[in-house]
Amino acid sequence: MSTTHKAHCLILPYPLQGHINPMLQFSKRLQSKGVKITIAPTKSFLKTMKELPTPVSIEAISDGYDDGGLDEAGSYAVYITRFKEVGLDTLSQLIQKLRNLDNIYYHVDKGVIKLPPTQVDEEILLPGLSCTIETSDVPSFVSTPESDILVEMLVNQFSNLQKADWILINSFYELEKEVIDWMANIYPMKTIGPTIPSMYLDKRLPDDKEYGMSLFKPMANECLNWLNRQPISSVVYVSFGSMAKLEAEQMEELAWGLKNSNKNFLWVVRSTEEPKLPKNFLDELASEKGLVISWCPQLQVLEHKSIGCFLTHCGWNSTLEAISLGVPMVTMPQWSDQPTNTKLVQDVWEMGIKAKQDEKGIVRREVIEECIKLVMEEEKGNVIRGNAKKWKELARNAMDEGGSSDKNIEEFVSKLMTIS
Ligand code: UDP
C-alpha cells in the first residue's frame, strides 16, 4: 500500500495476545522510521482489549464471529472454517504474516517429520538445528495434534511463503544463526527482533513501558510495590502466559514447589485459573513469601532487580523477553511451540533448565523446588546466570544502531519507501 507521502503497512495480527504484542512493537518501530501503520485485529478480539495502543491506527476485520471469536465458534475447526469463508482475502495475508520461525513446520510440510511421529522417543536431526530433538520436543500441534485443521493451517503457511518478498522473524541472528542461515537459502527471511519496547534495550530512549494492547488489566502498582520491598535477585516470577490452562493437580504441585523452595515468588494466576489454587493457599501459604496476581506488566517485572528466576511456560514472547532482559529460566512447557523453545533454552542457549514431568505428565513439587534452587543458588546455576547476561547483551546489540536486526529493519524500510 502507498500514500503520496510514505509507505503504508497494513498489519494483520493473529488474534492472540502473544501475536499482537510483538506485531505492535514492530509496527511502532516502523512508524518511528516514517512508515504509516494500520493494525487490523479481528472485531471480536478488539472488543476484548483492556488497553489500546495510542500512536497507531486500527481497522478491525471480521472473522465471522464478531461477538465472541473462537469462544463463540466453540472449536478451532469451526472457527477456522468460517474465517476462511468470511475473510478469505485477509486470511491469505494473515497467514503470510504469521510468525514463521518454525523450521519444524517446514519439515512436516516436506515429509521429514511424519504426522504425528510414530515412535515415542524417536530422535530427529533437522538441518539448521544445532541439537538433536526428540518427539517430545516437537511442537504439540505436530506431536499430539488436537485439530487437523489447525495443523493444516500451520503447515500450509509454507505453501504461500514462496510468494512473499520478505519474511520478518521476531528473533535475532546471533540467537539462531544456523537455522536462519539454513532457512534463508529457501525463503527471504530476515530477523527483526526482539520486538520489545525500545527503552528496555536502550535506557536513553523514551518509550512506552508496556506493549499497550492487552487482553488483561495489569495489577501494576500492587506488584511493583511488592517487588520494591524484596531483596535483589530473590524472587521467582511465575507465569504461564495468556492461554495455558493447568490441571488442578499441577497447580497444587506448583504451589507446594514454590513454598518449599523457600524463595519469594510473584505468581500470575489468571482469574479463570484461580479456582484451581489449593484451598487457603493465598491466605496461609503464600502470604509471607508470595504474591499472587491476575496479570502483571511482565516486562517491568522481568526488568526488576529483585527478580532472580522466571518459571515460564516458554511461550515465544516470554522466552525472548527473558533473553532480552537477562533472566534465567525454569521451564514448564505446556503445548504449541513451547516444548521446542524449552529445548533451545536448556540445551542450546543454556539459559535455563526444564522441570521434567512424571509419567502422568505432572511436574512434581520436588522437581520444581530443585530446579528453582539450581538456577538461583547452585554452582551449575552460575553458568546459566552467566549465559543470561551474555544473551541480554547480544539481544541489545542486535537492535542497536547497525546491529543485525536494526540493519534488516532499515533495509526493509528503504525497500518499502522505494515501492511507495
Ligand atoms: N504477559 C503480560 N503479563 C502477564 C503475563 C504475560 O504482559 O502477567 C505478556 C508477556 O509479556 C508476553 C505475552 O503476555 O508478551 C505472552 O506471550 P507468550 O508468547 O509468552 O505466551 P502465550 O500467551 O502466547 O501463551
UniProtKB/TrEMBL annotation:
One of its GO terms (molecular function) is quercetin 7-O-glucosyltransferase activity. It is an enzyme of class 2 (transferase). Keywords: Glycosyltransferase, Transferase. InterPro entries: UDP_glucos_trans (IPR002213), UDP_glycos_trans_CS (IPR035595). The lineage of its organism: Eukaryota, Viridiplantae, Streptophyta, Embryophyta, Tracheophyta. It comes from the Eukaryota. Its EC number is 2.4.1.-. PANTHER family: GLUCOSYL/GLUCURONOSYL TRANSFERASES, GLYCOSYLTRANSFERASE. Belongs to the UDP-glycosyltransferase family. This is Glycosyltransferase. Pfam families: UDPGT (PF00201).
